[in-house]
Amino acid sequence: MGTARERLLDAASTRFYEDGVNATGIDAITAEAGVAKKSLYNNFRSKSDLVSAYIDARHEEWLDLHRARASSAATSVERVLSVFDAYLDHANADHGGGFRGCGSLNTAAEFPAGAPERDAVRLHKEQVEQILAEGLAELTDADGAQELAEHFSYLLEGAVARAGLEGDPVRLERARGIAASMLGAL
Known about the structure:
Elements (H helix, E strand, L loop, with lengths): L3 H16 L6 H8 L3 H7 L3 H25 L4 H17 L10 H6 L7 H21 L5 H25 L3 H15 L2
């Protein structure tokens, strides 16, 4: 069943992803977690602290998906494409209420510019771009790798946004195909 903290974070992850952060009250989270409200505040200083933990957990979840994919990649091209595959794995996971796109970006969209939640999501997205750049550095020079990583990052984020709107991973599959074609031209 997990600790109270784990149950609260799992409940928050479900509610925040399906309903949005601002639309989700503490009572909904504690009810879904099956814990008293006091347990929430024993584990998180505030809802903001819970949101930060949620953003970090979403990113760690994606990193785990990526590590699993990258570990079975036999070539540099497959290692780069493993980033796309991890996004596909996320899109194809059971999301209860349906796939709604990137939970981190959805969360960031609920906060004003300069909010710490947006900054945390930006840092996570920069890490994804850096992972792409590191893989691409095996295939091209450093400047080319950085530029292509930025292009692939745009391709990924656009595809996940459209896939979320459509509730279907087809856009991510197409984005992976575009990336594979671009890599084949290197």
